[in-house]
Amino acid sequence: MADGYFNYSGDFQGDKVAEAEKEIAGQHSAPYFDTTTHRQDDGNELEIEFSLPLDYDQNDWEKTVDAFIAISQDLEEYHKALHTASEKHLKSI
After folding, report:
1. Residues facing residue 49 across a β-bridge
2. CB-CB contact of 61 with 35 (8 Å)
3. DSSP letter (8 states) at residue 41
4. Domain that holds residue 58
5. pTM (predicted TM-score)
6. In sequence order, what are the beta bridge partners of 52?
7. Dist. CA 17–CA 38, nearest whole Å
8. What per-residue confidence (pLDDT) applies to 42?
9. pLDDT tens for each residue of 11-67
10. For the chain, what is the domain count?
């Protein structure tokens, strides 16, 4: 069995950001996902663990990889929106 994780650490931190990131990740499912956590020890970092059994199904693994990619893209869009909102706010002060 192979175990690993996908992690994402964006530029913005805080409880609301962490909640939104977990919600984004939770919108995607995949056959080999185990858990979705949010680590606080080295900043806010979303972590999705997976376990790949020795007798894994190639199609299920491809679905899992596709889900990792989709989550990554959704998180990037979310953080771009946060950057845009932050820049607008800073310009208005």
Report:
1. 5
2. no
3. B
4. 5-91
5. 0.83
6. 2
7. 11
8. 56
9. 888 888 888 998 999 999 899 988 777 776 655 688 889 999 999 999 999 999 999
10. 1
